[in-house]
């Protein structure tokens, strides 16, 4: 089974992806890591690479082409990225599409802990990144990232442990079988 996991930064995507991959015995691909690695290779922050990507569509196109190639080649995989659900939907590739969400306060706190940043620094960087992504996705693909109509399951992770999020996902996936 192909599964996509999407959501804003700090919603718990990568954690849920890892737990789900382990529970189902599936390989996972986290595309945010590819973007982070690219930023590190270029000695740029995520914000700086995002700004560069606003002027150079090849950066996003490279990542999005990889999403589609991997999805086509792997009927049993978990793909974690902001656009994976949209890309698979538009290209007729079947998948169970999950969106994880959390309030800005919860997300900012999680990101700050993960990155070792102050709350103010986290808020500024996260908002800058989200605005850049939303602008690029609309500009390059005509995708409104706030449109959740492509998702099969939406889970708010504010008051859930990672294990509780996993249980919700496993219950939904189990209902499909």
Oligomer: single chain
Shape: globular
What would you call the structural class? alpha/beta
Query: Given this structure, which CATH class is correct?
Result: Alpha Beta
Helix content: 55-70%
Strand order of the largest sheet: 2-3-1-4-5
Number of DSSP helical runs: 8
Largest sheet: 5 strands, parallel
How would you characterize the overall build of this protein?
- The structure is a single chain.
- The chain has helices at residues 13-24, 31-41, 46-55, 58-73, 84-90, 104-115, 119-141, 162-176, and strands at 2-6, 27-30, 77-80, 96-101, 153-156.
- By secondary structure, it is of the alpha/beta class.
- It has one domain: P-loop containing nucleotide triphosphate hydrolases (Rossmann fold, 3-Layer(aba) Sandwich).
- Strands 2-3-1-4-5 form a five-stranded parallel beta sheet.
- The longest helix has 23 residues, at 119-141.
- The radius of gyration is 16 Å and the shape is globular.
- The relative contact order is 0.20.
Element layout with pairings:
Layout: E1 2-6, H1 13-24, E2 27-30, H2 31-41, H3 46-55, H4 58-73, E3 77-80, H5 84-90, E4 96-101, H6 104-115, H7 119-141, E5 153-156, H8 162-176
Parallel strand pairs: 1-3, 1-4, 2-3, 4-5
Helix pairs in contact: 1-8, 3-7, 6-7
């Amino acid at each position: 089974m192909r599964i996509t996991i999407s959501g804003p930064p700090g919603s718990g995507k990568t954690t849920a992806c890892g737990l789900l991959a382990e529970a189902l015995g599936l390989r996972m691909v986290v595309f945010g890591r590819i973007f982070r690695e690219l930023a590190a290779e270029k000695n740029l922050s995520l914000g700086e690479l995002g700004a560069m990507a606003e002027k150079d569509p090849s950066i996003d196109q490279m990542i999005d082409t990889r999403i589609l190639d991997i999805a086509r080649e792997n009927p049993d995989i978990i793909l974690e990225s902001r656009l994976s659900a949209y890309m698979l939907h538009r290209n007729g590739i079947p998948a169970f599409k999950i969106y994880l969400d959390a309030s800005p306060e919860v997300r900012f706190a999680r990101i700050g802990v993960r990155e070792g940043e102050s709350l103010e620094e986290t808020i500024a960087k996260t908002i800058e990144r989200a605005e850049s992504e939303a602008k690029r996705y609309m500009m390059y693909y005509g995708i409104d990232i706030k449109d959740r109509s492509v998702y099969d399951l939406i889970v708010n992770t504010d008051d859930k442990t990672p294990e509780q999020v996993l249980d919700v996902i496993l219950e939904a996936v189990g209902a499909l079988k």
